[in-house]
Amino acid sequence: TQPKRISILGVTGSIGQSTLDVVRQTDGMSVFAMSGHSALESLVEAAKEFQPKFVVATSQSAADGFDFGDLPAGTELLVGSHHIAQIASAPEVDVVVAAIVGIAGLPGTMAAVEAGKTVALANKESLVVAGSLITAMAASSGSRILPVDSEHSAVFQALQSGQPNEVSRIVLTASGGPFRDFSDSELKTVTVEQALAHPTWQMGDKISVDSATMMNKALEVIEARWLFDLPAAKIEVVVHPQSIVHSMVEFVDHSTVAQLSPPDMRLPIQYALTWPDRIAGVSPPLDLSRPQTLEFIPPDTDRFPALKLGFDVAARGGTSGAVLNAANESAVAAFLKRELSFTDIAIACQEILEQHDFIADPNLEQLMACDQWARQELAKWISV
Ligand code: NDP
Ligand code: MG
């Protein structure tokens, strides 16, 4: 068989690098194209090793003055984010790995879905912002969206032991983040350094902060609503600090099917790349030779109010996902610049959500207008 040709959007990030490791250790896969934004040294390194046909440097300003002289002779350089759509939809591509962070990932996800590609989706923000448009587009183009997010990969795997109408609920597990046991007053003084040190996962800065506020789980509830076409009422969250059970599906007969593996993103990435097949694992197996305890604890939405916003938005739909996502992206950026406190991230998001002019069935233009509006509101929030 032909090797699977992959486009990796966001190759220089945490998921992008883990994807390269999967490709490195898996037969029958080649990288057709890759994109990076500011980490251009790392982009060129990856191009030298994987010899893609195209490399996209999405940031014009970062690319200006950078010496791309080390790119392989057979690799064409494209500068500017508008080229993402080209490498996401090229006829040669079999699978698009959508691993850009934030709303910047939306155009690539949409281009791949519109072109009918198989999309290995890490960029959950795409579905949070535009889940209804993307799922409708996938239904008409024949695009298959396969989850990379570990919880959704677990659900996707567990769902295969029943029929869609036999599902009674899905239970997303959450590590609870580094501040799981912090009191209200301890949460108020959380620093950037503390928030970036996640106990079980090594990830990019934005999702690390999202995990610490539990906004990540909120976004994942919304992501699950769209990926699996389930109402918010059938989605639950449980805190599981060991990050071994990645999620579960309960069926109508009350049998619960869970997926277990050590916390290593290479497994869900590999599964999305090889589905419907399974092949020899790149990530290590579960070690059951030593005693260990798996805990399951109900989440505390008083200390982690962000989580509640996820259920509200999953139930409400419309423009609420675009507003929550944009408010959160801006709030996280402000927190990382030390302009906003840790606990104010969720408070600001909630206030901005409450103020917005809701549209039930928005088009892309209206979603983007909400995104812009929410970012402006957050900027105002900080300046007062
Ligand atoms: P990183 O911050 O490590 O990487 C982000 C990637 O996006 C980098 O390649 C970065 O380029 C690129 N990028 C940043 N800004 C832009 C932009 N404006 N335009 C184009 N490209 C841009 O993030 P992660 O890899 O951790 O996360 C990526 C996505 O995967 C997120 O949506 C996250 O929620 C999701 N995810 C991540 C998990 C993880 O374990 N890391 C788990 C589950 C989901 P550069 O570095 O060159 O600037
Ligand atoms: Mg996850």
Automatic annotation (TrEMBL):
<comment type="pathway">
    <text>Isoprenoid biosynthesis; isopentenyl diphosphate biosynthesis via DXP pathway; isopentenyl diphosphate from 1-deoxy-D-xylulose 5-phosphate: step 1/6.</text>
</comment>
<feature type="binding site">
    <location>
        <position position="204"/>
    </location>
    <ligand>
        <name>NADPH</name>
    </ligand>
</feature>
<dbReference type="GO" id="GO:0016853">
    <property type="term" value="F:isomerase activity"/>
</dbReference>
<dbReference type="InterPro" id="IPR013644">
    <property type="entry name" value="DXP_reductoisomerase_C"/>
</dbReference>
<feature type="binding site">
    <location>
        <position position="217"/>
    </location>
    <ligand>
        <name>1-deoxy-D-xylulose 5-phosphate</name>
    </ligand>
</feature>
<keyword id="KW-0460">Magnesium</keyword>
<feature type="binding site">
    <location>
        <position position="14"/>
    </location>
    <ligand>
        <name>NADPH</name>
    </ligand>
</feature>
<feature type="binding site">
    <location>
        <position position="150"/>
    </location>
    <ligand>
        <name>1-deoxy-D-xylulose 5-phosphate</name>
    </ligand>
</feature>
<feature type="binding site">
    <location>
        <position position="211"/>
    </location>
    <ligand>
        <name>1-deoxy-D-xylulose 5-phosphate</name>
    </ligand>
</feature>
<keyword id="KW-0414">Isoprene biosynthesis</keyword>
<feature type="binding site">
    <location>
        <position position="198"/>
    </location>
    <ligand>
        <name>1-deoxy-D-xylulose 5-phosphate</name>
    </ligand>
</feature>
<dbReference type="InterPro" id="IPR036169">
    <property type="entry name" value="DXPR_C_sf"/>
</dbReference>
<feature type="binding site">
    <location>
        <position position="220"/>
    </location>
    <ligand>
        <name>1-deoxy-D-xylulose 5-phosphate</name>
    </ligand>
</feature>
<feature type="binding site">
    <location>
        <position position="216"/>
    </location>
    <ligand>
        <name>1-deoxy-D-xylulose 5-phosphate</name>
    </ligand>
</feature>
<feature type="binding site">
    <location>
        <position position="123"/>
    </location>
    <ligand>
        <name>NADPH</name>
    </ligand>
</feature>
<keyword id="KW-0413">Isomerase</keyword>
<keyword id="KW-0479">Metal-binding</keyword>
<keyword id="KW-0560">Oxidoreductase</keyword>
<feature type="binding site">
    <location>
        <position position="151"/>
    </location>
    <ligand>
        <name>Mn(2+)</name>
    </ligand>
</feature>
<dbReference type="InterPro" id="IPR036291">
    <property type="entry name" value="NAD(P)-bd_dom_sf"/>
</dbReference>
<feature type="domain" description="1-deoxy-D-xylulose 5-phosphate reductoisomerase N-terminal">
    <location>
        <begin position="6"/>
        <end position="131"/>
    </location>
</feature>
<dbReference type="GO" id="GO:0030604">
    <property type="term" value="F:1-deoxy-D-xylulose-5-phosphate reductoisomerase activity"/>
</dbReference>
<feature type="binding site">
    <location>
        <position position="175"/>
    </location>
    <ligand>
        <name>1-deoxy-D-xylulose 5-phosphate</name>
    </ligand>
</feature>
<dbReference type="InterPro" id="IPR003821">
    <property type="entry name" value="DXP_reductoisomerase"/>
</dbReference>
<feature type="binding site">
    <location>
        <position position="149"/>
    </location>
    <ligand>
        <name>Mn(2+)</name>
    </ligand>
</feature>
<dbReference type="Pfam" id="PF13288">
    <property type="entry name" value="DXPR_C"/>
</dbReference>
<dbReference type="InterPro" id="IPR013512">
    <property type="entry name" value="DXP_reductoisomerase_N"/>
</dbReference>
<dbReference type="GO" id="GO:0030145">
    <property type="term" value="F:manganese ion binding"/>
</dbReference>
<dbReference type="GO" id="GO:0070402">
    <property type="term" value="F:NADPH binding"/>
</dbReference>
<feature type="binding site">
    <location>
        <position position="220"/>
    </location>
    <ligand>
        <name>Mn(2+)</name>
    </ligand>
</feature>
<feature type="binding site">
    <location>
        <position position="124"/>
    </location>
    <ligand>
        <name>1-deoxy-D-xylulose 5-phosphate</name>
    </ligand>
</feature>
<protein>
    <recommendedName>
        <fullName>1-deoxy-D-xylulose 5-phosphate reductoisomerase</fullName>
        <ecNumber>1.1.1.267</ecNumber>
    </recommendedName>
</protein>
<feature type="domain" description="DXP reductoisomerase C-terminal">
    <location>
        <begin position="260"/>
        <end position="376"/>
    </location>
</feature>
<feature type="binding site">
    <location>
        <position position="125"/>
    </location>
    <ligand>
        <name>NADPH</name>
    </ligand>
</feature>
<dbReference type="InterPro" id="IPR026877">
    <property type="entry name" value="DXPR_C"/>
</dbReference>
<feature type="binding site">
    <location>
        <position position="13"/>
    </location>
    <ligand>
        <name>NADPH</name>
    </ligand>
</feature>
<dbReference type="Pfam" id="PF08436">
    <property type="entry name" value="DXP_redisom_C"/>
</dbReference>
<comment type="function">
    <text>Catalyzes the NADPH-dependent rearrangement and reduction of 1-deoxy-D-xylulose-5-phosphate (DXP) to 2-C-methyl-D-erythritol 4-phosphate (MEP).</text>
</comment>
<feature type="domain" description="1-deoxy-D-xylulose 5-phosphate reductoisomerase C-terminal">
    <location>
        <begin position="145"/>
        <end position="228"/>
    </location>
</feature>
<feature type="binding site">
    <location>
        <position position="151"/>
    </location>
    <ligand>
        <name>1-deoxy-D-xylulose 5-phosphate</name>
    </ligand>
</feature>
<dbReference type="Pfam" id="PF02670">
    <property type="entry name" value="DXP_reductoisom"/>
</dbReference>
<feature type="binding site">
    <location>
        <position position="12"/>
    </location>
    <ligand>
        <name>NADPH</name>
    </ligand>
</feature>
